[in-house]
């Protein structure tokens, strides 16, 4: 069994043999390897001395809220709606059931300070009716039952992470846009590759940088990180770029989407 300790880290010290955490209650945890999986939190990362490098600052914005309708009234397990105009700067709106409520997540390519975002937070129903009248009836005319939660997302990587005794995984190592859903695959790849390397690390004394580097250089990890970053950048460009190449790409994607919907309706008929 693995003991579970709940606490807040006050001090971190790492080295080629032992890693040491001091919690705010004074308790001390020592181990051969420290795995940092703290997501967007910076406290432990700062204590260790690593730095986030922004690849795309304020890349996207995640907005979440509840609809006032019940799952029974909604009638579907989920629904995804894509914006009609590039000027809307919306990746998509997805609606899904959580317990006895209908939750909506919308991903947009704007900043928190954008006046559009402020207007949406003040009156989301009005703006949704303007953007998506096609699905208004299905969504109870977009009556909202919660505040609009907003989180800005930047694409980042980490600098100074190759060091003795510590490994960074998931969003603690790099962040990507949640709209593409690559984050889960990326963190699962990190965990899978880390568990593949750890037995060999523990088989010999020490936990120096040369051991840790094998994880960061693992081909599967590198490929997953690169794919997620490319997908995040591509998704933004195909939703906001106005050049001919991107207009043709959008036409291709929209046509494929319509054909897929038609095929589903045909099979269900």
What does this structure look like?
The structure is a single chain. The protein folds into 2 domains: 120 residues, FAD/NAD(P)-binding domain (3-Layer(bba) Sandwich), CATH 3.50.50.60; 97 residues, Alpha-Beta Plaits (2-Layer Sandwich), CATH 3.30.70. α3 crosses α4, α5 packs antiparallel against α6 and α5 runs antiparallel to α7. It has 8 helices and 10 strands. β1 and β2 form a beta hairpin. The longest helix is centred in the C-terminal third of the chain and has 25 residues. It is α+β, with helices and mostly antiparallel strands.
Give the tags.
five-stranded antiparallel sheet, FAD/NAD(P)-binding domain, 269 residues, 2 domains, alpha+beta, 8 helices
Secondary structure: elements and pairs:
Blueprint: E1 9-13, E2 19-23, E3 28-31, E4 34-36, H1 43-48, E5 51-67, H2 71-74, E6 78-81, E7 90-98, E8 101-108, H3 115-122, H4 124-131, E9 149-159, E10 166-168, H5 182-202, H6 209-216, H7 219-240, H8 244-268
Parallel strand pairs: 4-10
Antiparallel strand pairs: 1-2, 2-3, 5-8, 5-9, 6-7, 7-8
